[in-house]
Design goal:
The protein is 37% helix and 12% strand. The chain contains 16 helices and 13 strands. The strands form 3 sheets. Strands 1-7-6-5-4-2-3 form a 7-stranded mixed β-sheet, sandwiched between helices. It has a 4-stranded antiparallel β-sheet with strand order 10-11-13-12. The protein is globular. It has 3 domains: 44 residues, no CATH class; 257 residues, Aspartate Aminotransferase, domain 2 (3-Layer(aba) Sandwich), CATH 3.40.640.10; 128 residues, Aspartate Aminotransferase, domain 1.
């Protein structure tokens, strides 16, 4: 497929902009370019065809199965999009007087109330723009708490070896030193190793539960107790909340603050369909440090208020508001019973798919999983030379998105699958048949998989070359 620059023809144009209806502003020459930028010149029909073709070459949840582990690529209901497109939400300005946006303030107020109920928290900010941004904000809460008590020795954040990669990065950016703790043979946190690293220098723990192996840690209450007795705080990475929402609350597990991924758990567009939203909730004793403004209600009137010892803002205005609108729509549509049913089906679907594959593929931790599970293709690679990468690339031939590859790092040749609750039994059966066929092809024709995909718009690139020397711009003559 050619780039816009390659199909550009001098003199071709389109009329997309309306006629100027305000006074023209002429800038001083010193602010102007010496020469016009080399932009493509395209007719409207060619531009339309170009982007239509691009859309056909892109795989999304609306195209087919998308089992990208730890990403919760569930279907986004159309009703959420309709609500988020309402002019009463899209045609406002964040600097409007509060009395003119009472409905929008109520959205933030209600979303905070429901999400605090789901997580077991007491307050929440919607400023963070995405999950990692939420992690960073939650860690700043922990830092501000210790600073308020002049407890300056607490500089370490403990992170399990099965954690999301953003956890240690966020902790480092927040000014902490990262201490890794290994997993035990069941895939949970090794309690004895945890006890060895906690102390007066422990600021807190970052933990995902269920973890990235798709396992709920049976020792979770003991883990948070150990951290609290050492004087640290417990941070919950909400990336995997989809497995437990409505059933178990992080606040009841002993966590002091939590970030959520509205663009995952609460069915708003994810990835290329963004933007995201990573609200942060906390227990009452941390509310005084929350960033930016939160919404309070007095006698039926909603207004913004700033926490007493707020850390300041972490993002412009009030976060990605329309994402919150869609998430609230999702919550209200499902209701309490629907939220519980969704998490139950997410777990059911993951276990059903795992059972369909475990007689061929090795499951990293062969036990009941939560929302996702991890396959270990180490033995398959030794037998056939076919790697996890080969199987993932081969799945593209069948019109499904590959699982997450080589993560978590503690599993060799890992493939992580998360089917989510929105997939039907028929879809799961079809996906299982595909992975079983790929397993057989690994034994019968490994070379085919080494070079897969064969039918996609782009065949397999040189991964190393692409990473080290990416082509990021078009070089004109």
């Amino acid at each position: 497929m050619k780039l816009l620059f390659e199909i550009s023809k001098t003199g071709r144009k389109q009329s997309l902009l309306p006629e100027l209806d305000v006074k023209e502003t002429v800038f001083d020459q010193k602010y102007l370019r010496a020469a016009d930028p080399k932009l493509p010149e395209i007719s409207e029909v060619d531009l339309d065809r170009h982007y239509t073709e691009l859309s056909k070459q892109t795989h999304g949840v609306n195209d087919g199965f998308y089992p990208l582990g730890s990403c919760t690529m569930k279907y986004n209901p159309r009703i959420d999009e309709e609500t988020g497109s309402n002019a009463g939400f899209t045609q406002i300005h964040p600097l409007q007087p509060e009395e003119s946006v009472q409905g929008c303030l109520k959205v933030l107020y209600d979303a905070e109330k429901y999400l605090c109920e789901i997580t077991g928290m007491d307050g929440m900010t919607f400023e963070p723009a995405a999950g990692a941004h939420g992690e960073y904000t939650g860690l700043l809460l922990i830092r501000r708490y210790h600073q308020s008590r002049n407890d300056t020795e607490r500089v370490n954040i403990i992170v399990p070896d099965s954690a999301h990669g953003t956890n240690p990065a966020s902790a480092t950016m927040a000014g902490f030193k990262v201490i890794n703790v290994p997993s035990n043979d069941k895939g949970g946190v090794d309690l004895e190793e945890l006890k060895k690293v906690v102390g007066k220098d422990t600021a807190g723990l970052m933990l995902t539960n269920p973890n990235t192996l798709g396992l709920f840690d049976p020792n979770i209450l003991e883990i948070t107790r150990i951290i609290h007795e050492a004087g640290g705080l417990c941070y919950y990475d909400g990336a995997n909340l989809n497995a437990i929402m409505g059933r178990v609350r992080p606040g009841d597990m002993g966590f002091d603050c939590v970030h959520l991924n509205l663009h995952k758990t609460f069915a708003t567009p994810h990835g290329g369909g963004g933007p995201g939203s990573g609200p942060v909730g906390c227990k009452d004793f941390l509310k005084q440090f929350l960033p930016g403004d939160t919404v309070k209600e007095e006698n039926g009137v909603y207004r913004f208020t700033t926490a007493e010892n707020s850390m300041g803002k972490v993002r412009s205005f009030h976060g990605n508001f329309l994402v919150v609108v869609k998430a609230l729509t999702y919550i209200l549509t499902l209701g309490k019973e629907g939220i519980i049913e969704a998490s139950g089906k997410a777990v059911l679907n993951a276990n059903y798919l795992m059972e369909q594959l475990k007689d061929l593929y090795q499951v990293a931790y062969d036990q009941t999983c939560m929302h996702e599970f991890v396959l270990c293709l180490d033995e398959l690679k030794k037998e056939t030379g076919v790697s996890a990468m080969d199987i993932a690339k081969g799945s593209l031939e069948y019109g499904i998105h590959p699982p997450t590859m080589y993560f978590p790092l503690i599993v060799h040749e890992a493939l992580m699958l998360e089917p989510t609750e929105t997939e039907s039994k028929e879809t799961l059966d079809a996906a299982a048949a595909i992975f079983r066929e790929l397993y057989q092809k690994a034994h019968d024709d490994p070379e085919y998989l080494h070079n897969a995909p064969h039918k996609c718009p782009i065949s397999r690139p040189n991964e190393t070359e692409a990473a080290r020397n990416p082509i990021l711009k078009y070089e004109s003559d």
